[in-house]
Write a structure and sequence with these properties.
There is one protein chain. The chain has 636 residues and is α/β, with parallel strands linked by helices. It folds into 4 domains: 3-175, no CATH class; 188-294, Glutaredoxin, CATH 3.40.30.10; 297-592, Rossmann fold; 596-636. Helices cover 44% and strands 15% of the residues. It contains 16 helices and 21 strands. The protein has helices at 3-27, 34-61, 68-95, 104-132, 142-171, 188-195, 212-224, 242-247, 273-281, 283-295, 325-333, 369-380, 410-417, 458-462, 561-574, 596-635; strands spanning 201-206, 231-236, 255-260, 263-268, 299-304, 336-341, 357-361, 384-388, 420-423, 427-428, 434-435, 445-448, 450-451, 469-472, 476-479, 482-483, 486-493, 499-500, 519-526, 543-547, 594-595. The strands form 6 sheets. Strands 5, 6, 7, 8, 13, 16, 17, 19 and 20 form a 9-stranded mixed β-sheet that branches. Helix 12 (369-380) links the parallel strand 7 (357-361) and strand 8 (384-388). Helix 3 (68-95) packs antiparallel against helix 4, helix 3 (68-95) packs parallel to helix 5 (142-171) and helix 4 runs antiparallel to helix 5 (142-171). The longest helix is centred in the last third of the chain and has 40 residues, at 596-635. It starts with a helix and ends with a helix.
Length: 636
């Protein structure tokens, strides 16, 4: 066959083969003709490689030695496309019907076929562009082809790197805002609150036209008005519209005022952008707080005290693990009223009638029998309780002054009658933990994104790929689904490689300790009786949420949004307000913590991968420079 015909067909075979293979795998993957179309594409790709090899053989056998480098490069980029197609078939076979890769093998195959295909295409463009302008025989210019191919290969490598970074950023849901200010967006929680409004709310925003703070505030309120028929937003200027200022009782610009009936609430943005920056970053939380204030009745939470519980009123030990000031601040923003509830406030007699829920956060001292009985009686009658335990809470305890002499802590014993048993053994994980102190105790600092479908964790379950609850020195629970008229449900479980560090030596002991998922959170609800009336007249049933780690609500861990969402959604489920699950969005900076796997990736990437790439690149450049100098010496 004529050499010019082979040179023409080799490119036709490759281009037609790549296009046919793409069509077969993209549009006919479920059709009966799928393998025929993809097979024709693969055959054409193979024919293209063979044609280039024939051209290479012809050049080596004739006097056209100067054409050899160009034909080698042509065969190389065609071979890369063929390898990419074969790797894709293996990847598709391993992936099956799943929409995205999950295992390391699948992710490696995905990266390999994309890398081979991308580099092959860029290499091909450079090679064929230079080849079309290259001479033949003694007039061939191999250095020109090599230089053009090398330049296009650099472009291809840059494109591959950008694509990889873009893919990783999209999967990790990470975005960088390099501006000095960013106004928060409307959160899902606020949207749910607006959708459930039972009355109209009027919003008055007071600014002069062209104010720089107003332009930023509009970014939030423009998104708020979408699909919100109960919300009406109007912009006013105190100086030019005094009647509106009198109606909303505003004396100067910079205020956002909400009115619902005879209830009014406001917050101050200010008119200077520098001073308004902090409020703009938490605009959603401020608006949600004001909206709840004018549309909802305050719910009363009673926090127990006198047993060493975490509190916002006592001094912390400096670690941040004994204070809940951040949680207290957020609860007040969400229209909750908080009161203490100890023996001095009648905790040994009964829970106050105005209590919407009783909150118990940790404690290292046992409850009195009378206190546990009062809480139990309150829950039996339809009350609600959030109980966050601590591994230091005694299960074997007694008081020597004759007040009581119980075999076990009454609170823990009461929970067991509901079907929830607390095990005060510290959970640890030697692989998946949070690197905080860089000490061996970090194996107790755990994270988990294993959530069930229970209503109290529905927001976390929907975002399990991005949300992980943090715990430190957590115990675990054992639940009985049906116990004494109560139904217990698991809500949070630890990762499957977690073990109970019974001897607290920070290490896994083979044969004595077992790696398995443990229940960390549970929800309990009183079963309805057959004698209960219809739904609209049915009395409120008792509900209890139990978490095996009190430090999850501490100032250190509540900064993690998943922890805050868990506490807030648990409270909303308790009081029957799951329609507003989730939390307000915020653009305020929070401390970033890394897991051990992330630290290992950065460590090996900085000390091995990056220097290795530099050394390899330097070796390639040096070798080529030496080869070029040797060629020039030979010519001389």
């Amino acid at each position: 066959m004529n050499s010019k015909i082979i040179e023409f067909l080799r490119l036709v075979f490759t281009l037609v083969g790549a296009a046919t293979f793409f069509v077969g795998e993209r549009y006919f993957v479920d059709a009966s003709s799928h393998w025929w179309i993809s097979g024709v594409g693969l055959f054409s790709l193979v024919a293209g490689v063979v044609s280039s090899l024939l051209c290479l053989k012809r050049a080596a056998a004739s006097a056209a030695v100067r054409e050899i480098p160009a034909w080698k490069l042509a065969a190389l980029w065609q071979t890369l496309l063929l390898i990419s197609a074969l790797l894709y078939l293996v990847y598709a076979k391993v992936l099956g019907t799943r929409p995205a890769p999950e295992t390391y093998l699948e992710k490696c195959l995905l990266a390999c076929w994309l890398l081979a295909g991308g580099l092959g295409l860029f290499l091909g463009v450079g090679t064929e562009w230079a080849q079309s302008r290259n001479g033949r025989g003694a007039f061939a210019e191999p250095q020109r082809v090599i230089m053009a191919t090398r330049d296009w290969l650099k472009v291809g490598m840059l494109a591959v790197i950008i694509a990889c970074l873009n893919y990783a950023a999209a999967k990790r849901n990470v975005s960088w805002d390099l501006s000095y200010l960013k106004t928060t967006a409307v959160s899902e929680s606020t949207r749910k609150l607006i959708d459930g409004l039972g009355q109209d709310v009027e919003v008055g925003i007071f600014f002069t036209q062209g104010n720089e703070v107003l332009s930023q505030a509009k970014l939030y309120f423009n998104g708020l008005t979408q699909k919100a028929p109960r919300i009406s937003i109007n912009y006013f200027d105190v100086e030019t519209q005094p009647l509106a200022a009198e109606k909303f009782k505003v004396s100067r610009n910079g205020y956002v005022v909400l009115r619902a009936g005879d209830q009014t609430e406001r917050f101050d943005l200010g008119t200077n952008l520098a001073s308004a920056r902090k409020t703009l970053r938490s605009m959603d939380a401020e608006f949600q707080k004001a909206l709840l204030s004018v549309t909802e009745k305050k719910k009363v939470l009673y926090f127990t005290r006198g047993h060493g519980e975490l509190s916002w009123s006592t001094s912390d030990d400096g670690s941040g693990l004994k204070s809940v000031k951040l949680l207290e601040n957020y609860l007040r923003q969400q229209n909750f009223s908080m009161r203490f509830f100890g023996v001095g406030e009648g905790a040994a007699n009964a829970v106050p009638q105005d209590a919407d829920a009783v909150i118990i956060i940790g404690g290292d001292q046992p409850f009195l029998e009378e206190e546990a009985n009062a809480i139990g009686s309150y829950v039996e009658k339809g009350g609600k309780a959030l109980v966050m335990l601590d591994v230091d809470m005694p299960t074997e305890a007694s008081i020597s002054q004759g007040v009581r002499n119980a075999e076990k802590d009454p609170l823990v014993r009461w929970l067991s009658t509901l079907g929830v048993t607390f095990e005060p053994k510290v959970l640890a994980n030697a692989t998946n933990f949070v690197s905080a102190s860089r000490s061996e105790a970090d194996v107790w600092f755990l994270f988990t994104n294993v959530f069930t479908s229970h209503e109290s964790v529905q927001s976390l379950a929907r975002n399990e790929q991005r949300a992980a609850v943090l715990t430190f020195r957590s115990g675990f629970l054992k639940t009985i689904p049906d116990s004494n008229g109560w139904s217990a449900y698991d809500t949070i479980r630890s990762l499957s490689d977690t073990f109970a560090d019974e001897n607290r030596d920070f290490k896994y002991t083979e044969g004595k300790e077992k790696r398995e998922p443990r229940v960390i959170g549970a929800a309990v609800e009183h079963k309805p009786s057959n004698a209960e009336p219809s739904d609209d007249k049915r009395p409120s049933r008792g509900r209890v949420v139990v978490l095996a780690d009190a430090s999850a609500a501490s100032d250190v861990l509540i900064r993690n949004q998943a922890n805050l969402i868990y506490v807030m959604d648990s409270l909303r489920w308790l009081v029957g307000d799951v329609k507003t699950s989730g939390i307000a969005s915020s653009e305020e900076d929070i401390r970033i913590r890394h897991t051990k796997k992330e630290d290992m990736l950065w460590f090996y990437g900085t000390i091995l991968l990056v220097p290795g790439l530099v050394l390899i690149s330097g070796a390639i450049v040096t070798r080529r420079a030496r080869r070029n100098r040797g060629t020039e010496v030979d010519k001389q």
